[in-house]
Amino acid sequence: MQTTFRSVFISDVHLGTKACQATHLLDFLQNIKTDTLYLVGDIIDLQEMRSRAYFVDAHHSVVEHILAMARSGTKVIYIPGNHDAFFRQFAGQTLSGIEIKLNARHTTANGRTFHVSHGDEFDQMVKISPMMLAIGDKAHGLMLSLNQWINGARRLMGLPYWSLAGYVKSHISKAKEFIERFETAALKSAKNQKVDGYICGHIHFASFQRKGDILYCNDGDWVEHCTALTESAAGEMSLLHWSENPKILAAEPKEKDWGLQEPNAPTTHLI
């Protein structure tokens, strides 16, 4: 039985790379029904595919299923990110039933307005030196390789998916500082635009953050955490994790619940 949502937001899928958790994503998409699906950037990793492409059957199946959703009546909006920036030149066009936009405004069922973008526009605000960025890219690549190896071993032992990157980002101070600066930039942008919140991806860290009446939502990724942001029929936002044991990670915080909602926080099982 499919779970029904008003809208679903996914990003940082990185199809075309070995790290992409395409099987989990396909299972997620096959088990949901949504009025609107937002693809919030870095869906296909054209950047990585320039040097090495890994586009296996599961990756093709994800693309085919999204196209089928568009044909069957789901409104699909694609907002390219920095790894699939090639598609930004087609902004304003509809290709195979998919609307391509540089950014979007989403109005929830309860009347709130959210600005939606990939999030790479904040890279200049969240200062990182080129050297540290290069070191970070190498370290991230190593972490993804380790993540694949660890979860391959866990599957053999009958254990569910576990994110090494999620653990690292939640426990290393520099990573936490970077995430906090990114969130602050998004919240400031939402305030300046006079909207109720900001929805993005880019940093591979699903979370909610509230400052006053402004809500920051990051839908996470499908290479490390396998997460999506969903909107219910009532307009309430939730973060879901989908692997062998799908579960609700967090519901949107109310004004009294300020603070970072981390993916490793106490969870409620979805099924």
What's the helix and strand layout?
Blueprint: E1 3-10, H1 22-30, E2 32-39, H2 46-49, H3 57-71, E3 75-78, E4 94-95, E5 98-100, E6 104-107, E7 113-116, H4 130-156, H5 164-171, H6 173-192, E8 197-200, E9 207-211, E10 214-218, E11 227-231, E12 237-241, E13 247-251, E14 268-269
Helix pairs in contact: 1-3
Q: What sort of overall outline do the alpha carbons produce when their principal axes are compared?
A: globular
Question: Helical percent range?
Answer: 25-40%
Radius of gyration: 17 Å
Order of helices and strands: EHEHHEEEEEHHHEEEEEEE
Let me know the number of strands. Answer: 14
- From the N-terminal CA to the C-terminal CA, the straight-line distance is 11 Å
Average per-residue pLDDT, rounded, comes to 86
- Please indicate the percent range of residues in DSSP E strands (runs of 2 or more): 15-25%
User: Briefly, what CATH class?
Assistant: Alpha Beta
Whole-number count of domains? 1
In the CATH hierarchy, the third-tier topology is known as Purple Acid Phosphatase, chain A, domain 2
Multimerization status: single chain
CATH architecture: 4-Layer Sandwich
Helix/strand class = alpha/beta
Contiguous runs where pLDDT drops below 50 for at least 5 residues: 129-136, 258-271
Look at the structure and name the CATH superfamily: Metallo-dependent phosphatases
Count of helix runs:
6
Spatial sequence of strands, sheet with the most strands: 4-5-3-2-1-11-12-13-14
Main pleated sheet: 9 strands, mixed
